Amino acid sequence: MKILKTKFRKNDLFYTLICRNDKVALYETRQEEDMTRCHYEVARIYIKPAHTAIGVEFEEAEVLTSNEKFFYDGSGAFIKKDNAMKHFNELSATLANLHATRTNVQDKRTRMPKQPLLPGVDLPE
Predict the structure, then answer these.
(1) Is the CA virtual torsion 87, 93, 96, 98 positive or negative?
(2) Domain spans of the chain?
(3) Widest CA span of the chain, in angstroms?
């Protein structure tokens, strides 16, 4: 399985991983890679299943919450590292408790829902 990168660029921000577990990641974000001013993002980690698109096979991979789900799934943005770390710990505990209360769960990881590759095109079952 492909694991999340510790450094990457997304949405015109530079991300650096501070800490993570199997369900949540805490990243430091900067507008410029060498800026001293930064913010923090706590994001849920999902598992995207292996799939084929446009004739290319992709392996199972960890992915962060989408821009559309950000905030709605418990992910958040913070100015202070202490607040971000507190939210990271709370979200981690909430997701661990949620998993513990579920029954008949085959996999401890959160799976990405199937989504069409193109708008209006359904995936085969």
Answers:
(1) negative
(2) 7-101
(3) 49
Provide DSSP, 33-78: TT-S--EEEEEEEEEEPPEEETTEEE--EEEEPPTTTTTTTS-EEE
Tell me the per-residue pLDDT of 16-68, one tens digit each, with 9 for 90 and over.
999 999 999 999 999 998 888 999 999 999 999 999 989 999 999 999 999 99
* pTM, full prediction: 0.76
Q: How many CB atoms lie within 10 A of CB 93?
A: 11
Q: Who contacts 80 (Cβ-Cβ below 8 Å, separation ≥6)?
A: 40
- In angstroms, the CA 106 to CA 20 distance is 22
73 vs 71: CA distance, rounded Å = 6
